[in-house]
Amino acid sequence: MSARPYATGPATFDNTTTIGILEYKKSASASSSNNMNIPLLKAKLPQFNDTTYAMKFNQKIRSLATRKFPVKVPKKVDRRFFFTVGLGILPCSKNQTCQGPNNIRPAAGINNVSFVQPNTALLQAHFFNRSKGVYTTNFPTNPPFKFNYTGTPPKNIMLDSGTKLVSLNYNTSVELVMQDTSILGAESHPLHLHGFNFFVLAQGIGNFDPKRDPAKFNLVDPAERNTVGVPSGGWVAIRFLADNPGVWFMHCHLEVHTSWGLKMAWVVNDGKGPKQKLMPPPADLPKC
Length: 288
Hints:
The structure is a single chain. By secondary structure, the chain is mostly beta strands. It has helices at 32-36, 51-59, 122-127, 255-259, and strands spanning 2-3, 18-19, 79-91, 104-110, 113-115, 160-162, 165-168, 172-180, 189-193, 198-205, 223-225, 227-230, 234-242, 246-252, 263-268. It has a domain at 79-269: Sandwich (Immunoglobulin-like), CATH 2.60.40.420.
């Protein structure tokens, strides 16, 4: 087996081909002489930044969708979200000097919000009902302003910043479309969701069309993941069931981007049943 990394960003990385050898246990009918005559097939791998090839490859991944391994993709949607994912700029932090023009720095965000890490743990603030001054639950369900997300960027690329979350009732079925933007360059962002698996319904290049693209959604045997790449200059649609109470991060798995603020969090409130509630912290949990 041979493999090559896929990347769209400007950072340098090891793009050499990796090779793995699989050895199968010989059957009684197999002979060594026959095996010697089998030709070695060398894979023709795509370029490391071939987004179209990468997307077509990912679209072939399916769940088994059998009785033993059923696909529990939510068919009914309670709440729909549309998130833009990408880069932008922010003013330089106090008492610091940044190299950007007018003392600005590169940043990243979701729906124009660059996440600010609080000093108090989000889960702790949620459990003890002390969110005031730690976080708010007014994270935008849609971009604050519309533009050609994969075309010419808007003149104002300044991001907002804050510790904003989305609050969900227990057992809410969520449909989320994540759209890459061309601000400071289109790039594939691997988005990882804590606390849940989700189903990858569809993905495409360009701007998501809410009238046409939902017809492409695979509700029969979609792949079940916890990380998905938002295509460079494209979009991806997922669904998940919020049946795990707590506070759960969703962030880009490119470390520099998550440090720049490309993350947010979902608050899933308790349900009514005894097994639908967030457990208290253990008695021996160290305190700050």
